Amino acid sequence: MASRSSDPEQPSLSSLGKVGKSSGEIDEAQVPLVNGERHYDSYSVLSAVLPFLFPALGGLLYGYDIGATSCATISVESATLSVTTWYDLSSVDIGLITSGSLYGALIGSVLAFNVADFLGRRRELIVASVLYLVGALVTALAPDLVVMVIGRFVYGIGIGLAMHAAPMYIAETAPSQIRGQLISLKEFFIVLGMVAGYTLGSLLVDTVSGWRYMYGASTPIAIVMGIGMWWLPASPRWLLLCAIQGKGNMQNLREAAICCLCRLRGEAIGDSAPEQVEEMLSELSYVGEEKEAGLAEMFQGKCLKALIIGAGLVLFQQITGQPSVLYYAASILESAGFSAASDATRVSILLGLLKLIMTGVAVVVVDRVGRRPLLLGGVSVMVISLFLLGSYYTFLDNAPVMAVVALLLYVGCYQLSFGPIGWLMISEIFPLRLRGRGLSIAVLVNFGANAIVTFSFSPLQALLGSGALFFIFAGIAIISLAFIYFIVPETKGLSLEEIEAKLL
Asked: I want to staple 101 with a disulfide (CB 3.0 to 4.6 A). Which of 39, 156, 207, 304 is the partner?
């Protein structure tokens, strides 16, 4: 594979969803596939594991950073345990440490917009693993605050690239029957990383130079991720897109796609790989992927619809109060008489375990129940939970048990709905030739909204009060329900080509 287009690092999705009528359901008679049949991939479970696992480690490292940093800031401020001369940090300094990776992720998302299609998904993930490694080492070995913040920023750029490329690579290489489960399982890995970070941080928080060990612990995983991505094959869909856009020899790219598909599906695919590749090629041509994408196309026609769906979901994911609710977790549990609530680390571990369990439930049921039912059901309960929390802080402060129930319902239902489904939908909903740029915009919206909510929370809390703030979040969640009902389509069981042909 000498040409760039046949380089086994460049996978890509190939399709999307269109808004179904008012309910978002699919009209089976609308825009049939080229062959008129729905094809289900033959695959072995073992062969499907590694193309998911190595990209998902990027999510694990993202989650680990969130958990570890909450404990590392305690360690680095300790006069006796930090073993630094600059432990006396201001609130601005701590803010730079905690948010450095977030702003790095924003830059990574911007970079992804311009270089993702040039690098390809596989190479983008390799670059992300290198940035994870360098960022973690620089942070762990930092001789002063400035170097530490630089390390956090570099690590954050890795987060931005990984959270952009990982869902695309997984979606492009996963069998359609389990695509939803695998992409949702990436969210499970993010939460697993958070729990691991909280747990390891709580064990090391009283250790001399514990913060260095917390950040350094992520380096072996970054190395495994990089080696794994180097070994994995290209996405057959990406190779075929290059073929129909004239970026290489058609026959060579077709043969390369067949080889890659055989590696991805294992022995279960038998002799059907050439037939499946031809089917993909026909469907890519059918939905008009021959033209190379232009930037203006992102805001036209079906690409604009995909952008509204994807960016809208990740925006509501952030502005319906998730960071703010977690901020109140310790005080809510403490008011209800839980002794462990005075220890923020233990509270974080407990809530992390709840998030992990509920994300696991979403992984199991998403390809059976579907995306829309999980979103509609989960967000509906989130609305109720936010109203209960608003009521608690406004006029029911003598009912702490109700606040605890509302808190647990909110966290659990978020992980059933917005948490995994948001990332799943943005990985499915953009046309192949615009997928890199479309997903980079969605990821940028996600991290940007996160940064704004995190920054504005304390001023709004002081201005409006906690109760009013939760009522506002509840109102936004109601708007998100209407958005889901009228705009977001169901993509369960459809191949990426079918999503684009039938839903956009």
From this structure: 156
Separation between Cα atoms, residue 17 and residue 94, nearest integer Å: 42
Domain ranges (residues) in the chain: 45-232, 235-286, 296-503
How far apart, in whole angstroms, are the C-alpha atoms of residue 54 and residue 228? Answer: 6
CA 472 to chain CA centroid, Å, is 25
Burial of 252 (0-12, 13-18, 19+ CB in 10 A): middle
d(CA 131, CA 218): 12
Residue for token pair 């060579």 = 252
Where helices occur in 287-343 by DSSP H, the ranges are 301-319, 322-327, 329-335
With vertex at residue 25, the alpha carbon angle to CA 22 and CA 26, rounded to the nearest 5 degrees, is 130
The pLDDT of residue 27 is 38
Range 296-503 has CATH code 1.20.1250.20? yes
pLDDT in tens, 187-230: 899 999 999 998 998 899 889 999 999 999 999 999 999 999 99
Q: What is the DSSP string of 111-175?
A: HHHHHHHHH-HHHHHHHHHHHHHHHHHHHHT-SSHHHHHHHHHHHHHHHHHHHHHHHHHHHHHS-
Residue ranges in the chain modelled with pLDDT below 70: 1-43, 117, 286-295, 327, 330-331, 334-345, 503-504
Q: Do 45-232 and 296-503 come out as alike in CATH topology?
A: yes
Q: What is the CATH number of domain 45-232?
A: 1.20.1250.20
Q: How far apart are CA 489 and CA 18, in angstroms?
A: 6
Do the Cβ atoms of 318 and 453 come closer than 8 Å? yes
Buried b (16+ CB within 10 A) or exposed e, 200-228: bbbebbeeebbbbbbbbbbbebbeebbeb
CB count within 10 Å of CB 271 equals 7
